[in-house]
Amino acid sequence: MARVLTPQAEDFPRWYQDVVGKAELADNGPVRGTMVIRPYGYAIWERMQAEMDARIKTAGAQNAYFPLFIPESYLNREAEHVEGFSPELAVVTHAGGKALDEPIVVRPTSETVIGEFMAKWVNSYRDLPLLLNQWANVVRWELRPRIFLRTTEFLWQEGHTAHATYEEARAYARRILLEVYTDFMVRVLAIPVVVGRKTAAERFAGAINTTACEAMTRDGKALQMGTSHELGQNFARAFNIEFSGADGRRSLAWTTSWEAPPGWWGV
To answer: 242, 254 in Cβ contact below 8 A?
Structure first.
């Protein structure tokens, strides 16, 4: 094997790339940072997706799908969110042979577009909790791409929920972290993970709290495997996600989002 694979002790990142290539899991795509997932690699993805999807549904969330293209104005409504993602955005300015009236962002994550539709769908406390999940691709312009771990375009799932109270939202975010992500990592992938809370500097842009489960690679790096965010009322306020309570009073919803990033592909 030493003739086929770079020794881990010599160059761990190169060993990883050798394994991906020799196992015929994926190839680099034609655009920098993209990848082509080969049949064997995609078959592994399907097995992982099925396990995750079952856990997400057990937690009460339903699958939906939202557009890949998001009006730039949606992101601008939540200041911390747009500031956090600006360096990674891919933006469409021309289509159909002419300049667009408003630039369109290629989905980096979907809090904004889903928030827009939650505002349409939530009117009463009877509409809550609203528990949604999406299997999709997202685009983030990575500076240092690596197949499966950090690519410009990647497959993932992202959940988005709206709740009547802070306590309900917080409890659900924690449930996803433990019963969906951590359970899947440990019981299916047999990967030990460390569960904890992100610092304010590392928190998801626009969240009031971010919790995560992370694994350690053999070269001593932490790899983020799943994150669950309490968004407070920040996105509800930006997108006017309101509901009438049992007493008839209007209140802002409390929202969460959670996603399994590409890290769990690559460990």
So the answer is: no
Split into its structural domains, the chain has a count of 1
* pTM given for the model: 0.92
* DSSP symbol at 205: T
pLDDT band at 245 (very low <50, low <70, confident <90, very high): very high
Structure tokens at 155: 């497959």
Residue 194's beta-bridge partner residues?
Answer: 214
Q: Nearest to residue 264, comparing CAs of 179, 150, 172, 108?
A: 150
CATH number of domain containing 240 = 3.30.930.10
Q: What is the mean pLDDT of residues 214-235?
A: 91
Residues 6+ apart with CB under 8 A from 225: 181, 185, 191, 193, 212, 213, 214, 215, 260, 261, 263, 264, 267
First-to-last alpha carbon distance for the chain, in angstroms, is: 20
Q: Is residue 188 part of a domain?
A: yes
Number of other CB atoms surrounding residue 217 within 10 Å: 15
| Beta-carbon count within 10 A of 127 CB | 15
Q: What is the pLDDT of residues 116-135, one digit of tens each?
A: 999 999 999 999 999 999 99
- Provide the residue range defining the domain that includes 160: 12-29+37-65+109-134+155-266
Annotate 34-46 with DSSP letters as a single string.
Answer: -EEE-HHHHHHHH
